Amino acid sequence: MDAITFRYLISLAVSKNLEMHLMDVVTAYLYGSLDSDIYMKIPEGFKMPEALSTKPREMYSIKLQRSLYGLKQSGRMWYNRLSDYLRSKGYTNNLICPCVFIKKTTFGYVIIAVYVDDLNIIGTHKEINEVIMLLKGEFEMKDLGKTKFCLGLQIEHMHNGILVHQSNYVEKVLKRFNMDKANPLSTPMVVRSLNVDKDPFRPCEENEEVLGPEVSYLSAIRALMYLTNCTRPDISFAVNLLARFSSSPTKRHWNGIKHIFRYLRGTVDLGLFYSNNAKEGLLGYADVGYLSDPHKARSQTGYVFMNGGTATSWRSQKQTLVATSSNHAEVIALHEASRECVWLRSMTQLIMTSCGLEENRDPTLIYEDNAACVTQMKEGYIKSDRTKHIPPRFFSYTQDLIKANQVEIKYVQSNNNTTDLFTKSLPTAIFRKHVHSIGMRHAHKM
After folding, report:
1. Where is the Reverse transcriptase Ty1/copia-type domain (predicted)?
2. How far apart are CA 28 and CA 1, in angstroms?
3. What does the alpha-carbon distance between residue 282 and residue 255 come to, in Å, rounded to a whole number?
4. Which of 111, 304, 331, 381 maximizes the CB count within 10 A of its CB?
5. What is the pTM of this model?
């Protein structure tokens, strides 16, 4: 189960007033049956039969009947074992989200979200108890109660919704890099200079010293990327930018990492809040930071999709093509956002129909702040001197989705486009406005 699906299930549980319960399978990999012959050396301490004791132990091997921890296929074998059992009990799943099992019951529905040996059960109190008895009858299980900590995420249940944050993880990371007593900052990145030569995040220059192995640059990037992908979209752009220099980081880049740490120091308990008063439905924003990487003439794609007013899916990524104009870059960004939208609609509609809930057939709104780009998408590709160099596929895909009534592109003013958060460094006031608009809140203020 991926993080996006898990965040959507949390928002669904909040909106439908469902409970979340966590179960853990004891020695899960040992339940799997192997689909091929695997032999292993005889382990130390294994008592050999007397009939075989005349020859050296090295001449014999053991054929495995079940999967073991350490085998490459153990995870797959465990998934097959669990999947076959749940399907035999009336649960359904789909390739769109294969680790989500749903069963429609007489009184409602129940959802089991699987992540290796952790099973998140979402449903009413009665249905959850029935599932617990069902699973305990087949596997040895640990009942961990209401879901409060899962996949490294802290889940706080409140009267008006659920807050998902990683304050414990943030504190561990800050302590690990000796930044736990640093002075906090209000944004994760300084506002960059338009002068290319003065940009603090320019690539390593010829006469510049590269950081040695004593500076854990890669480890810091890895820790920050985990935060970014789970609960901290507010640092996405800064982390994406600094990750580009992992092969040859300099002191300037390390100062950028420490800047993020100082921002995290002041926002330790910031997380995503899913409110039970919010209106359901997907809503997207797309934008581009034109020439965000002036050194290689590349722009930055950014998009965010919210369900119930809180972010569930987001991305900040440098474009692989060199855009020749801001309009060209915006078209590419909309193309990427449309691709994500198709999967999100498939995933949400599958879950809703499997639960017997009424699904929303209305097109998903994607807001864009380039008026020319919005017009082009609505009226179709028109060849002109300004667009003839843009591959038509970037227009055609989104336009086909518009014709199929899956997507609707609307114009929004630039100062109200929350995706600026994912495409550029921002002043404090604007940054905080966009952070609040994607549903991020502090735990101590709830």
Report:
1. 6-190
2. 16
3. 37
4. 304
5. 0.91
